[in-house]
Design brief:
Layout lengths: L6 E4 L1 H18 L6 E7 L3 H10 L5 E8 L12 E4 L9 E9 L3 H11 L5 E10 L11 E6 L4 E2 L15 E3 L6
Parallel strand pairs: 2-3, 2-5, 5-6, 6-7
Antiparallel strand pairs: 1-9, 3-4, 8-9
Helix pairs in contact: 1-2
Length: 178
Amino acid sequence: MNNNTPEVLISEEAIQTRVLELAEQISADYDSADDLVMVGVLKGSFIFLADLARRLSIPRTIEFIAVSSYENGSVSSGAVRLLMDVRGNIEGKHVLIVEDIVDTGHTLKYLIGMMKSHRPASVRTAALVRKAESAEVDVDVDYLGFDIGDEWVVGYGLDYAEQNRTLPYIGVIKPTDT
Ligand code: IMP
Ligand code: MG
């Protein structure tokens, strides 16, 4: 484990401002009669989802799914594994997938396919951060917080080897396995 304090890339204040903007946009885009289900992708999205969900002004329910692709390091295997599916029935509902970060795009692409197999009324995506230059597959992010460069970030839910998830800001660290 490294004890270096991550360097601030996106401040707590900037995150809070952007999350509120996204919440307002989502609240405006959906009708309050829409059955909106926010599907958080564990573990990384838990803080973003909590803040985003509480700032919406429309009715919503919460589900979680868990996937794994990195096996505790920072090198993408490209292979996505479903560890836990949604519990509730999402057929006919409006699904908003809430992700922490889009890197190669493989995870989000896989998740969109997974959600569609449940026959929802619609599927959209929200991500706090995207590494724009790292995309390997084309995948739409309907509600994006921030574009960043190709660097490993932690905080606000994001980890490196399970560390630093609860930092209030997004910071940069240097992975030791690349
Ligand atoms: P993708 O399939 O390459 O787009 O990878 C997406 C997943 O990799 C995210 O949901 C994260 O869990 C993880 N990930 C990718 N980059 C980072 C990072 O910089 N910090 C923390 N997790 C990351
Ligand atoms: Mg994730």
